């Protein structure tokens, strides 16, 4: 993996939640364990639709009397609106913080998804170059971000949230929980995001072998890509593939190649 000095992640935006009951509130609406965070810890999870699809993937930075949500910059207004909708009569404040951003850098493993993604910190990002090596590491590890996950497109299992403790299967109800639990216990996640390497960096986003649709490219960096692939069809494919599929070191699901 590439070592990298602090890089800003300009595609992320910060929302501060301050006041009584913030962690309990987030615990009740997000997929991950928030209630048991200790100061300085970061959790990763998602706000789902009632149908169980990811609307917003977020990092929760617990900083004592305030908690910061680190999410997709283009979707922050919608995230804030939903937080205010679910807050009801709770007294805590929800404040967009345009003076803060996210820095990522090699070092202590505070990214809850993978140690090699290093540290992500809430800070003043002025004067820092935007992330490049961070994204190269992310693609090499096969880990999607908001840009690839999108909104209201994927179930948590498809985006591998079950592999990163992005879903707490022991906690009580949260929005979309019934669908996610059913998918988990029945093992019905047929599609997963995986890292692939194309022979041709101009290959089409729709991935086919003959007439069989295997999946679609969600994002690419030259010949490296992250793709949502049907695992059952990948195992059934008879022809040679126009790309190389890698099984990440964190993956606890089977990836069978032709």
Description:
By secondary structure, this protein is an alpha+beta fold. Among the domains are: 7-126, Alpha-Beta Plaits, CATH 3.30.70.1400; 190-245, no CATH class. The chain is 19% helix and 30% strand. It has helices at residues 22-29, 76-87, 133-141, 146-149, 177-186, 231-236, and strands at 7-8, 12-18, 42-48, 54-62, 66-72, 93-96, 101-105, 119-123, 191-198, 206-209, 212-221, 224-230, 243-245. The strands form three sheets. The protein has a five-stranded antiparallel beta sheet. Strand 11 (212-221) and strand 12 form a beta hairpin. The longest helix is centred in the N-terminal third of the chain and has 12 residues, at 76-87.
Main pleated sheet: 5 strands, antiparallel
Task: From the 3D structure, determine the CATH topology of the domain at 7-126.
Answer: Alpha-Beta Plaits
Order of helices and strands: EEHEEEHEEEHHHEEEEHE
The CATH architecture of the domain at 7-126: 2-Layer Sandwich
**Distance separating the two termini:** 28 Å
Number of helices: 6
Using the CA coordinates, give the radius of gyration.
19 Å
- Identify the quaternary structure here: single chain
Integer average pLDDT = 92
For the biggest β-sheet, the strand order reads 3-4-5-2-6
């Amino acid at each position: 993996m590439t070592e990298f000095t602090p890089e800003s992640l300009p595609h992320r935006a910060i929302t501060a939640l301050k006041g009584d009951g913030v962690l309990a509130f987030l615990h009740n609406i997000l997929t991950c364990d928030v209630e048991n965070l200790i100061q300085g810890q970061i959790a990763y999870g998602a706000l789902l639709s009632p149908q169980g699809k990811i609307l917003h993937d977020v990092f929760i930075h617990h900083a004592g009397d305030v908690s910061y949500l680190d999410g997709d910059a283009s979707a922050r207004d919608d995230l804030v609106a939903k937080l205010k909708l679910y807050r009801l009569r709770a007294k805590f404040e929800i404040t967009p913080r345009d003076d803060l951003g996210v820095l990522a850098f090699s070092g202590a493993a505070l990214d809850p998804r993978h140690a090699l993604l290093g540290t992500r910190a809430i800070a003043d990002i002025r004067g820092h170059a935007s992330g490049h090596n961070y994204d190269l590491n992310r693609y090499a590890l096969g880990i999607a971000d908001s840009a690839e996950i999108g909104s209201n497109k994927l179930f948590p299992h498809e985006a591998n949230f079950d592999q990163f403790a992005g879903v707490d299967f022991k906690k009580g109800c949260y929005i979309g929980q019934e669908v996610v639990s059913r998918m988990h216990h029945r093992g019905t996640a047929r599609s997963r995001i995986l890292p692939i390497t194309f022979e041709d960096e101009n290959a089409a986003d729709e991935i086919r072998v003959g007439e069989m649709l295997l999946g679609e490219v969600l994002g690419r960096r030259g010949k490296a890509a992250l793709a949502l692939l049907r695992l059952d069809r990948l195992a059934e494919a008879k022809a040679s593939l126009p790309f190389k599929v890698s099984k990440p070191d964190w993956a606890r699901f089977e990836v069978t190649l032709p």
